[in-house]
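Appendix B. Raw example, untouched.
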Amino acid sequence: MIHIHEKTLKDIEFPKILEQVSGYCLTSLGKEHTLDILPLSNREAVINSLQHTNEYLSSFENDNRIPNHGFEPITKEIKYLKIENSVLETMSFKKIASMSLSCNEIIAFLKKFEEYYPQLYLFASNIEISKVIIEKIDTIVDRFGDVKDNASVELQYLRQQINEVKGKINQSFTSALNSYNSLDYLDDIRESVVDNKRVLAVKAMYRRKVKGAILGGSKTGSIVYIEPEATFRYTRELNNLEFDEQEEVKRILKQLTEFVRPFTPLLEQYQQFLTEMDVISAKAKYANSIKAILPQINDDKHFYIRDAYHPLLLVSNQKKKVKTYPQSIELTPESRIIVISGPNAGGKSITLKTVGLLQAMLQSGFLIPVHERSTVCLFDRILTDIGDNQSIENHLSTYSYRLKQMNYFLKKCNKNTLFLIDEFGTGSDPELGGAMAETFLEEFYHREAYGIITTHYSNLKMLANELPFMQNANMLFDEKSLEPMFKLALGQAGSSFTFEVAQKNGIPYGLINRAKKKIERGKVRFDATIAKLQKERSKLEKTEQSLKLNEKKKQSEAEKLEEINAKIQKKLESYQELYDSNQRLIYLGQKMNDLAENYFENKRKRELMDELFKLVQIENSKRKKISAKQMKVQKAKEQQVIKEAEKKVEVIRQKKKAAKKKIEETPKPKPIFKVGDRVRLQDGRAIGSIDKLEKNKAVINYGMFTTNVSVEQLELVESAK
């Protein structure tokens, strides 16, 4: 099961790839799906997705181009179709017909050219080709999105009537226009349009001479707009016919909606298929832009990318017309981990990100920009620790954050994992951080994980030389010009060129020489530190001896405690037996008391004797036959336990009495009362507050009443705040 964490995808800038790919999508749904792409969950899904993209890419180079897959989303239409009695509009049907046509064309095309696109055909083969929807919609809706005249006999008749009435309206209006114009009742403009109706532009002074409905006038008031009487009569008839036409159109669209409704699942399938085709097309177009290919995928845990480019860097440099340097990296079971060293700004982090990003892309169905002889394997997890690792939100330092990351790595890391760590071990004391980093790296190594790390620590470089399935690598630097060459060289650790880079960047020679001398001085300091450590060691030896003595004492005390514990355990068992015996006797006493009460009430001797006999039989069935000697020993034992228990109880009682007497004898310090204190009488329960103090007397307020008492009789409950 493949799972790559969201943080890993952010570390390697995978979302930026999705943004670039989404720009090649033709539809809004395709863009949404592209931005939501995550690495696929299993090997089969990865290979199928890669083959889909690769086959679509191949269509750019042959004469059999895959038909256009662009479509307008019908998400709203699908929702409405799922609602009973809902009615779709004509433009919705146009979208449905267009989508169905596109889908049918692509499926038919893939079937025809199956040998060119076997995986794409397999992907489309489970989708039904249906022309019924298209044909039905075409009989009802024309190419402009209007309901056709011949959609029904009734609609055809209504539209003929409408055309006839419109002709009569035009004829009657022309007649009125000519008539009133000859009488000079009309303005120079003669006619106008108000509320989509032709009206006569009548001079205001002649408005009473013209028969018809006044629909308005000019701003100056010199013109009145009148619809002629004959035209007005026909207009009312037209309104009625248009209303009937609208009702008939609604009926036809409702009927068409009911026809399409059963095909809702198929339409959903069509939309999903075209969306997937849009995503595949976008992946192929992006692959074409960065010259990406499908490398060989192996099961031998062999990861070899030759002349690999970082896609984001490649696209950026293409725009700037700057050269991008490719990298070649190989990981095999015999060389699982690479430790990259060398100066900063040499391209170590980019190399790390290139590997992570290309692997994540591949496992998400994207082709990658590598040489055709590259071969890759799939990983269940990709773990990364790249970039600025200070967490302001969680108040974590870089090192604390890194330790949390390493803890997560330890939980998830196994032989199917690829880990990528930038500046491994930084954020703490160089020696201590290096030691921790070395330990983690050893653990990852023993778990047979694959990985690449970048570091400046010498101990990690040495570890890579010592372990057989790990190797050093370095980013090549021109030693003369001190310019990075952006090439990875396997097999040898790299120098950080600390002093050389400092010199190139203009640091004065004097300061660089002082720094070099400090290296020698550091050796002297190191000797002094060793002497100190020897003293500390002798102290630790003395401490160790005293700890050993203490340990012996504690051991002997522990043995004594075990003996005491064994004795206590035996006594507890004896007490338990005594308790069980007493409980049984109490139960028998209660049973006898119940029998006595029953006999007292009913005076039935036979019933009493029967019950007593049953009780005796039950008790005797529990007893074991023991000899008189054993009975004597058992009773003696019980008596001994009783005596010991009574002695201990008596001792406890005496201690409690003595403690109580001591408390009673100890004189209590007299409290100093003040106004506001909460108090009560020594022999009372009611609590009141002191309102007034005079000499040895106090006025106590109980809420409902006050009383005057001696201070000697009072107890303090709570001091005033």
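End of appendix B.
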